[in-house]
Specification:
Blueprint lengths: L13 E5 L1 H13 L4 E4 L11 H7 L2 H4 L25 E5 L4 H13 L5 E5 L5 H7 L6 E4 L5 H4 L2 E6 L5 H13 L3 E5 L7 H17 L5 H12 L5 H8 L1 H15 L8 H9 L15
Parallel strand pairs: 1-2, 1-3, 3-4, 4-5, 6-7
Antiparallel strand pairs: 5-6
Helix pairs in contact: 8-10, 8-11, 10-11
């Protein structure tokens, strides 16, 4: 077993990857706290992983690096992950995609940074499952960071996979704490606690709208005034993204096979219509 002797005062260097909207928002958090980072675009166009570095040899830098989606952080996008191999303390992968769609990027990034702690989204699968398919079971720590919420949350959940070494749990805790989060270690489950509860409440609110029980405005006013939520559930859904909420619910239903996690038909219809929330200009509410 490898033993990591971590310094009392850690220095951080982060390799950030995942869905562009997740990555861009988290990049601003890292930048605000003066944590150095680079961005690795998804490598999911590579179909099979035989020998990681051999695959990278066959991929041109232009195939891997495309900074257009990352705005002000386009200069942080890596053109060749091997150029800084072994230099990252943490790999952070933020995505709502299924584990098999994330395997390649995580496996390649981890193979060239064999000591890095891997912090990955567990919105649609568990850390144990993702660690197994990407061969990083001893290094993976799960989080549930979603758009809008990740920038405003003061406390977040995180989890260890069943095979994760304690040193990596503490290494992840150190970075998340440095970023200003209060962290709560919970069991390794899809969606963990806060986001799972929020997704289910949004789902119930969507059912209420679909069944004509109340308007989105009335539901959100009731939640803000009645239970002192900082914003309404459906406004939250629009900020996070209707598609993200629906995929979280799908992941919960797949894991638990229980009817209570079934996404509301209205959420699916809104996705089909392109009413995916604030970023699209329309969700439960209309935006300029």
């Amino acid at each position: 077993m490898t033993v990591y002797n971590l310094p009392d005062k850690e220095s951080f260097n982060v390799l950030l990857t995942g869905d562009p909207d997740f990555v861009l928002e988290f990049a601003t958090i890292l930048d605000r706290h003066n944590v150095p980072f680079n961005i690795l675009p998804s490598l999911d166009e590579i179909d099979e992983l035989d020998i990681e570095l051999e695959l990278l040899e066959r991929s041109s830098p232009g195939d891997i690096a495309d900074g257009a989606a990352y705005g002000a952080y386009a200069d942080r996008v890596l053109s060749d992950i091997r150029a800084s191999a072994g230099s990252y303390s943490h790999i952070i992968e933020l995505s709502v995609a299924a584990h098999f769609d994330r395997k390649i990027t995580l496996e390649i990034a981890s193979s060239v940074n064999p000591r890095a702690t891997v912090i990955a989204s567990v919105l649609t699968n568990t850390a144990t499952e993702l660690g197994m398919v990407a061969n990083i079971g001893q290094r993976i720590v799960g989080v549930t960071l979603v758009p809008s919420v990740m920038s405003t949350a003061t406390t977040i959940d995180f989890c260890a996979g069943l095979n994760t070494q304690q040193s990596h749990v503490e290494h992840a805790r150190a970075l998340l704490t440095h970023l200003g989060y209060g962290v709560e270690l919970v069991e390794d489950r899809v969606g963990l606690v806060q986001i799972r509860v929020l997704a289910m409440l949004i789902n119930e609110a969507a059912f209420s709208v679909m069944e004509g029980l109340a308007t989105p405005e009335d539901i959100d006013n009731a939640m803000r005034l009645g239970v002192n939520y900082p914003k309404g559930l459906l406004a939250w859904a629009d900020e996070i993204g209707i598609g993200v909420v629906t995929l979280i619910l799908d992941g919960l239903r797949r894991e638990y096979e229980q009817e209570r996690y079934r996404p509301c038909v209205l959420l699916k219809q809104m996705m089909r219509a392109g009413w995916t929330g604030k970023a699209a200009g329309r969700g439960f509410f209309t935006y300029a």
